[in-house]
Amino acid sequence: MSHTLTRTPAADRFWMPAEFEPHAGCWMLWPERPDNWRDGALPAQRVFVEVATAIARFEPVSVGASGAQFAFARQQLPPGIRVVELSHDDCWMRDVGPTFVVNARGERRGVDWVFNAWGGLDGGLYFPWANDDAVARKVLEIEGVDRYRAPFVNEGGAIHVDGQGTALVTEQCLLNRNRNPNCSQSEIETWLQRYLGVSRIIWLGEGVFNDETDGHIDELACFVAPGVVALSWCDNRRDPQFAISHDAYVRLCRARDARGRSLKIIKLPQPGPLFSTAAEARGVQASENARPRPERTRLAGSYTNFYIANGGIVMPLLDPRTDRLAANRLKRAFPDRKVVGVSTREILLGGGNIHCITQQVPLAGRPRKRPA
Amino acid sequence: MSHTLTRTPAADRFWMPAEFEPHAGCWMLWPERPDNWRDGALPAQRVFVEVATAIARFEPVSVGASGAQFAFARQQLPPGIRVVELSHDDCWMRDVGPTFVVNARGERRGVDWVFNAWGGLDGGLYFPWANDDAVARKVLEIEGVDRYRAPFVNEGGAIHVDGQGTALVTEQCLLNRNRNPNCSQSEIETWLQRYLGVSRIIWLGEGVFNDETDGHIDELACFVAPGVVALSWCDNRRDPQFAISHDAYVRLCRARDARGRSLKIIKLPQPGPLFSTAAEARGVQASENARPRPERTRLAGSYTNFYIANGGIVMPLLDPRTDRLAANRLKRAFPDRKVVGVSTREILLGGGNIHCITQQVPLAGRPRKRPA
To answer: What is the band of A209 on the pLDDT scale with cuts at 50, 70, 90?
Structure first.
């Protein structure tokens, strides 16, 4: 039961709450396509189980699996995790799932963005993507939450908000001609204001180097609290990430949020740089319908791609040289949450990380303060 | 989230409540297979929409549709009805869905019977049936209700209960060698006692004439209240249904329920007899995987195959010569419920009727009195 509404969240006085606000739970999908995930997706599935299990320590988790994989997913996941049948073209719930919005009475609705596999036929990652584009609607039906169908292409990983009127995005993604080629930057701003209920948009430039999503914000930077942003950082001038992180830093230093605050910036070290190995690349079945995954590809590893759960942080472990420093920075950034690490190289090999495969459902029935 | 439990409902002090007790809602499936439903299932789909809409006047309705049919089902069904993705081999939720049981604290669990398409390779109606057999589990996951996997073949349409310790079944179905060939009648009784939480089983003989389910009780007779049974009745001695109904009547007259009461019997007239037409048979695509549907087949039409909703009865309209009499008898049997009729010949052509395509979910959180 999910009515499709004809206005916009902002017109109905709904907005997207921050990820660090209380959740009802978390949604994920079950990976399976052998032309993206090596060795028939079994190594990735094992890590998805670890991520789901880690999040389930803090809040209820639902996992959507295709009909063909349902029984195996059900068997592999702990019984306390809900498994539902949900067709998809790949498993990036952050990008294909709904973006939930709330109002002052604590009611929830969902934004269902148009999805085109990160660029459609102009640089997208696979074809077709019709099942992916239907995921948000199916989640909203199960949750019993009404739906806004946004009239433009976007992904959940391309946006972060502070829940107080500010959104964080990248030009590389939001202004990419393979998303909404007929929209100017100011038109995109208007859409984001209407569908996220924000009044201030902070534009960073490029996303993490070689991020195949065209620079999703959720690999580069995120809000950890109102007025506080974590940023993936690189000190090595010869690394292409150096200029990207420095440009983002400068923009963040100059920015003011919707309440006029300047931002505190927490630097998270970049892991690696990390590259796929020949053995890893060999496990992927070549296919005409998906982008190839050759060996020695620079991987868009980033510690900012963590998930904020109720009372917990589930973060990727990617490189023994930097994992501990990143974890310590996150512990300081989230003193009231338990930081749990999961080794997620298998997810990174498929093109993303923990934040990309999760989507939070905000808690309902709790009055909330309207943003600026 | 649905744990699979290792004991039995009776051992855990759970039992199946009667259909006339309060519901949380109703589940259905969306018909689609063109080798069972004529004209690409569109006429049947229209009637399923009418049935779902009628039930939704009284209680929440969820409809499971395959991935291929999801968008169309969502479009055809009213927005107040929940549509979820659910693979199936056909659409008989009564038989493939869970049988819910409750306890004295109002907690719910679900029984997931082994399903073999009404007889497996020995007279079953189609092959394969693996998706059907997974439906109950998927419903229980979405509902968040724990599951008993019954270790024997059964269908929801093969059982009726009064919620006070009595079950009503037929020998033709429950003792059929194509269900549980290695079980004696007393072993079947033991299984029913354990999984339905009943202490008394009333055995009728054969089900409705030419019922392809091997004589499901829900075409022949049902409880309308404790101590009161509706029975499909035939006065024409030359009709093969005559002997079946009379035998059932005699058995019901002699029976005592779990509380020692004799039963009041309400006779519902048999419609027709009804036969499929050449035009109807032509619309079904012949297939090696499903039983053929030739013209001039006697249809197992019965007014006892109605659904009891909260405050309502949704009954099949099958024959203008008998519809009104049947409706009046149901109105008298259920004086506090609104009786709504839906013309369901299109469902009957596919092998069942309104009760066969529905499955109630009992209301939770409400203390209940343990049966005898």
So the answer is: very high
Asked if B74 and A137 come within 8 Å (Cβ–Cβ), the reply is yes
Q: Which of B284, B305, B306, B287 is nearest to B295 (CA)?
A: B284
Q: At A240, which helix (H) or strand (E)? A: helix A240-254
CB contact (8 A) between residue A4 and residue B85: no
Between CA B120 and CA B118 the distance in angstroms is 6
B283 touches chain A (CB under 8 A): no
Residue A64 parent element (H or E): strand A61-65
Is A356 designated active site?
yes
* Contact: A74, B137; criterion CB under 8 Å: yes
Looking at chain B, list the stretches that DSSP marks H as alpha helix, in order from N- to C-terminal side: 42-56, 70-76, 93-96, 130-143, 171-174, 185-196, 217-220, 240-254, 278-282, 323-333, 345-349
Residue pLDDT, tens place only, B234-267? 999 999 999 999 999 999 999 999 999 999 999 9
Number of helical (H) and strand (E) elements in chain B, helices listed first: 11, 17
Say if residues B270 and B276 touch (Cβ distance below 8 Å): no
Question: What's the alpha-carbon Rg for chain B, to the nearest Å?
Answer: 19
Inter-CA distances, B231 with B117, B135, B207, B224, B266, Å? 25, 30, 11, 10, 6
Task: Find the length of chain A.
Answer: 372
N- to C-terminal Cα separation, chain B:
32
Q: What are phi and psi of B22, to 5 degrees?
A: -65, 140
d(CA A193, CA A190): 5
Q: How far apart (Å, rounded) are the C-alpha atoms in residues A40 and A31?
A: 9
CA atoms within 13 A on the CB side of A24: 17
Q: Which residues of B touch A138 (CB under 8 A)?
A: 70, 84-85
- φ, ψ at B209 (rounded to 5°): -55, 130
Q: Which value, to the nearest 10 degrees, does the dihedral of the CA atoms of residues B293, B159, B134, B211 take?
A: -10
Cα–Cα distance for residue pair B269/B327, rounded to 1 Å: 10
Distance of alpha carbon B260 from alpha carbon B251, whole angstroms? 15
CA distance B207 to B221: 9
Q: Is the dihedral of CA B356, B361, B366, B368 positive or negative?
A: positive
Q: Which residues of A173-210 are buried (b: 16+ CB within 10 A; e: fewer)?
A: bbbbebbbeebeeeebbebbbbbbbbbbbbbbebbbbe
3-state helix, strand, coil in chain B (%, to 5): 30, 25, 45
- What are the tokens at A315? 């973060």
A70 vs B: CB within 8 A = yes
Global pTM reads: 0.94
User: A330-368 b/e with 16+ CB inside 10 Å = b?
Assistant: beebbeebebbbbebbbbbbbbbbbbbbbbbbbbeeeeb
| pLDDT tens per residue across span B277-322 | 999 999 999 999 999 999 999 999 999 999 999 999 999 999 999 9
For chain B, the average pLDDT equals 97
